[in-house]
Design goal:
By secondary structure, the chain is α+β, with helices and mostly antiparallel strands. It folds into 2 domains: 86 residues, Phosphorylase Kinase, domain 1 (2-Layer Sandwich), CATH 3.30.200; 226 residues, Alpha-Beta Complex (Aminoglycoside 3'-phosphotransferase, Chain: A, domain 2), CATH 3.90.1200.10. It contains 12 helices and 9 strands. The chain has a 5-stranded antiparallel β-sheet with strand order 1-2-3-5-4, sandwiched between helices. The longest helix is centred in the C-terminal third of the chain and has 29 residues.
């Protein structure tokens, strides 16, 4: 069946009165989204073909979050066979949109407030009891697997450097040695926790003021990962002072071992940003989404800063020749 026909049948089976569909501009995801307008209420339709994503995973994480009093979207209807999901619309008030609308003189104080909201949410998120939650672990194997996109797309097409089998093995060995320095923490990690995926919900209270989306790839791993994700945002500049303030705020509020936490933060920062270089190179070159190439300089600056600042990455720096 034609996918557009299947989509219409899915919506027709839910809505008993006329509705309108407006596509939502996408990111570097094979999923697509539409905003549905019906009787003065808005909905979000996720279109995720089964070869791209199992929507049961999204439903599972959504349930975990809602059961623990977080503002994940309410789900109204699913079609697991075809990969459609109709959910609550959290609006357009993303953190990125809020910050983009501010004048320069207002930005610093508002950023402090918004980023503290997001840090407070992570503190609450990391209190979730995981004893009955079955999710993949963000272990060395998965972290290493993610770096393949950097080798295959960034090094190959941006740096014009194709690694030999021996070099690929050396690259992996360097990273495995680095990953040995990570803690064995196991907390819920949403993975795409950044200003475009966080929504301000003014009428709700405490951490429910933040709406969450794009969490279907959640895993169990270090509590530092999502902090890296939104403090080293690939799409907007976050000052180093604000990054340090929020790291210190998280440490102070949780009384964790600061030395190990900062080690985790540094390692996951470099891993994540090197992976993103590969993803953006793939989007820009293979899929002709040139706007992602414009984002590379910011991410590359994160990478070069990490390689420069910390001795634990000295072997990797020599290998990359950066």
């Amino acid at each position: 069946m034609d996918r557009e026909i299947a989509k219409r049948e899915f919506l027709d089976n839910y809505f008993k009165s006329p509705y309108n569909i407006k596509p939502i501009p996408g990111d570097c995801s094979p999923r697509s989204y539409d905003r549905i307008f019906n009787e003065n209420k808005n909905f979000i339709l996720m279109d995720a073909p089964i070869e791209v994503m199992n929507i049961e995973t999204f439903v599972k994480i959504d349930s975990i979050l809602r059961d623990n009093n977080f503002s994940a979207p309410e789900i109204y209807k699913t079609d697991k066979k075809n990969g459609f999901l109709l959910s609550e619309d959290l609006g357009n008030n993303s953190f990125n949109n809020i910050l983009s609308d501010l004048k320069n003189q207002e930005l610093y104080l508002k950023e402090q407030e918004i980023y503290q909201y997001a840090t407070d949410l992570l503190i609450e998120l990391h209190k979730i009891n995981l004893s009955e939650i079955d999710l993949p672990e963000y272990n060395s194997d998965l972290l290493l697997k993610e770096l393949r996109v950097f080798v295959d797309h960034y090094l190959k097409f941006i740096k014009n450097r194709e690694l030999s089998v021996k070099e690929q093995r050396e690259f992996q060995e360097i990273w495995l040695e680095i990953f040995q320095k990570l803690s064995n923490d196991r907390f819920l990690v949403l993975r795409d926790y950044h200003a475009d995926n966080l929504f301000f919900l003014e009428k709700r209270s405490i951490h429910k003021k933040i709406g969450l989306i794009d969490f279907q790839d959640a895993v169990l791993g270090s509590r530092a990962y999502d902090l890296v994700s939104f403090l080293q945002d690939a799409r907007r500049d976050v000052s180093k002072n604000l990054q340090k303030d929020m790291i210190n705020y998280y440490i102070d509020k949780t009384s964790i071992n600061s030395t190990q936490f900062i080690t985790d933060y540094k390692i996951l920062s470099l891993q994540r940003n090197i992976k993103i270089l590969g993803i953006f190179a793939r989007q820009g070159i293979l899929y002709k989404n040139k706007r992602y190439l414009d984002l590379i300089p910011r991410v590359l600056e994160y990478v070069l800063s990490s390689l420069k600042e910390d001795k634990i990455f000295s072997n990797l720096k020599l290998f990359l020749k950066w």
